[in-house]
Amino acid sequence: MRGTRLSPLYSLALAGCLACAWTLCAQWEALLAPPPGGGLVLRAQASADEEEADTEEQEYTSRETRTEKGTAQRIYKEGAQLKAQYHFINFNKDRVSVNFAMSAAEYRKYLAGYGYADFELNGLRAWRETARGDAWKKAYTESGKAAAERAIAEVDMEYDTRLRALLRARGLALRAGNLVECDMPVIVKRNTELLKPLALAFSKISSERGWSEENLLGGVLSMVQTAIRYKIPPTVEDGLHTGGLLPPARALLSGWGDCDTKTGLLASVLGNWKGMRMVGIAVPGHYLMAIRRLPGKGDVFVRYEGLEYVLLEPAGPAWLEPGTVGQATTALLAGGNGYKVEPFF
Questions:
Q1: Do the Cβ atoms of 235 and 42 come closer than 8 Å?
Q2: Helices 196-209 and 213-222 meet at what angle, rounded to 10?
Q3: What's the whole-model pTM score?
Q4: Distance CA 112, CA 73 (A)
Q5: Which residues, other chains included, contact 132 with Cβ-Cβ below 8 Å and sequence gap of 6+?
Q6: Number of helices (H) and strands (E), helices first, in the chain?
Q7: Which of 113, 127, 238, 245 minimizes the C-alpha distance to 166?
């Protein structure tokens, strides 16, 4: 096939159109990552400094005096197994101990499914730039400017699809305004089966001790509130943009996490019980959850799709029973900014 020589005027017009397209592209990318920390919209991330965690806790939880002893954790490695042991007190005053373990190899594979590196996003952007150039040149040569603009739009749609797929695979989501945040529903669904052994351990304790459903729910909640330390995760760790959240298994095998980390852990365990319907509740600077049930006297609840959901406050360190939240949380729920509901199950 013989080649076609482009006239200088045609080449100049083509270059101008490509420059315009890439300028618009750059503006879109600027929106994707406006703030520091990888351009992530974070839930309850007022500070990344551990020493400020106590201040952050007091902003949305009330502290209750605990006189009982027995809340503790042990994180250790035994052979090829990574293990965590938690001791805590349920709301019925029962002392409880539970364990969780994963092999080191399984854990490494698990962690690879969360967060993204700059080189991954840069590779995706590089593909788009090449694809845009090739698509414009081919379509403009064959059918003119209108066809070339449509070709560019198709490339952009494919880029958006690939970007969303990458983020979703890493527990993140692209939201309105081209901002990235943790995708809590995806994280909960992905971790429910993984945390089934822990749910079964709670079920066994419940059966042995004759617990009610309320005691069973309280056992998991009290563990997350009191035995898991409160600490704010970094937004970028070892070159990975994390969204400021630890996935549930890491929270268990590290022994710490913040409000959304603890919510993801609690919901992932509770999701193993049949009929459990849960929603996440995002308010400015804080994240918690609620379960579908009729509220009792004094229970704090929200309505979602015409049904009542009773609130659970996983963050701790306060020992707050189902239906009870901190004073700051109550104020946030009633505030002018309202709250966002994310269904888990």
A1: yes
A2: 130
A3: 0.82
A4: 25
A5: 18, 21, 22, 25, 152, 155, 156
A6: 11, 15
A7: 113
